[in-house]
Amino acid sequence: MTLNADMTRLRDLMRAPLPDEALVRAVAEVLKAVGPQGGAVALDYVSDHMARWPDHRRVQLRHLVPALRLHGRGPTRLGVRAAGQSHPGAIRERNEDDYQLIVEHQLFMIADGMGGHCSGWLASKVALWGAIERYQRGDEPGWAEGRADPTRDRLIEAMTQANERVRRIALPGIGSTVAALCLSEGRALIAHAGDCRVYRLGAAGLEALTRDHTLLTAWDDPSRPLPAHYHGIVTSAMGCSEIVEVEIGEFAFGAGDRFLLCTDGVHKVLQEEALAALLEAHGGDPEGACEAIVAAAMAREPADNLSACVVEVVEAQSESLGSGRSAPPEVGWLYCVAGPLEEVPQRWREVEQGAGAIAWFNDLHQLIMGQDVDIGG
Q1: Is the alpha carbon torsion for 133, 150, 81, 114 positive or negative?
Q2: How far is CA 316 from CA 17, 191, 313, 354, in A?
Q3: Which of 106, 174, 222, 353 lies at a 20 to 30 A Cα distance from 135?
Q4: Domain ranges of the chain
């Protein structure tokens, strides 16, 4: 087939009312058949027209033709700028939220701990570092061999381990909601359990990419409204059951898109219009966007903790940039955060201060980093 014939076929296909799977496979076959001479032209044409496609169709085609990550006449490398900020809020003394920006893996996570002023802060950290430790195992040689979608598998296994780690703590009521964003091969993979949210600000405006796992969302009886004090009860969270309901979504993305991860302390007090305006006002400045979002939420004197992470996709001229926590917590840092530890298992309360305190937090640190520790009451 000549280049002109290939391009004619592509133009016809891009306008054809074919089912998604048939269309994607037909376009992929033509692109693979195009020789080196017309490759850039054909890829450029399809990339431009893919902007009108729904996300799931674009993701499918990128799976079949990885070269679609090359836009225009030459390669465009996509990088990220990322930042995060967290605040205890207007009332609470301790912050039970946490976030992690693992820029080298383009993995971004946020968590909101539950279970009291000790259990909550511990749950969020155990959940995130349990997930990250498992995700990083995917770097090991041979790990991806034989897997149809290694990145998706890594994310699912990471969330599964987060749940297992929080369950091991075994404090009453302990748990953590979690949302994770992973940017890989032209698609955004999102995993979440609970009511932490992920938004995307793109050409179509701000859209929520997650659905809250709450009693209000699940309520399906319009004849009997759910009482307001039940609205915030989460139906899925790390550590609350042996098997956790983790929802996975896939979305296409491109340069200029901005993602916002936030805990319910933010989205309960700031409407989507306000969030979109703040993101727009701080384009190119994720750190400034995070500061503005937290400040706007604090102006409403919220009772809950507040956390926001902003990830902006850029045409990379250099390495991806990030700010915020991206290294495991150390024992001394845990001790400072925990304070007097009033709500802990009995054996911790019986240990004297001083050398004994170091032993407590060595145990906590080992638990967070995935080592076997007996923390029974």
Answers
A1: negative
A2: 36, 25, 9, 49
A3: 174
A4: 3-69, 78-322, 331-368
Q: How far apart are CA 113 and CA 98, in angstroms?
A: 8
Look at 136-150, 187-201, 252-266 and tell me which has the smallest mean pLDDT.
136-150
Distances (CA, A) of 23 to 13, 62, 214: 7, 13, 37
Which residue intervals of the chain are DSSP H helices?
Answer: 3-15, 20-33, 36-50, 55-64, 119-136, 150-169, 215-218, 264-267, 272-281, 286-298, 331-338, 346-350, 355-368
3-state secondary structure (DSSP) of residue 146: coil
Phi, then psi, of 285 in degrees rounded to 5: -135, 75
Count Cβ neighbours within 10 Å for each residue of 350-365 and write b for 16 or more, e otherwise: eeeeeeeeeebbebbb
The two structure tokens encoding residue 109:
């996570």
* Residue whose tokens read 């909550």: 120
Name the residue with tokens 């209000």: 216
Residue of 68, 301, 275 whose CA lies nearest to 185: 68
- For the stretch 159-216, pLDDT in tens is 999 999 888 876 778 899 999 999 987 789 999 999 999 999 988 899 999 999 987 7
CA dist 297 and 305 (Å) reads: 10
For residue 368, how many C-alpha atoms fall within 13 Å in the half-sphere facing its CB?
21
DSSP secondary structure, 275-322, as one string: HHHHHHHTTT-HHHHHHHHHHHHHTT--SS-EEEEEEEEEE-SSS-EE
377 burial class (0-12, 13-18, 19+ CB within 10 angstroms)?
exposed
Cα angle 251-235-97, degrees, rounded to a multiple of 5: 75
CB 304 within 8 A of CB 268: yes
pLDDT of residue 352: 45
Q: Which CATH architecture has domain 78-322?
A: 4-Layer Sandwich (3.60)
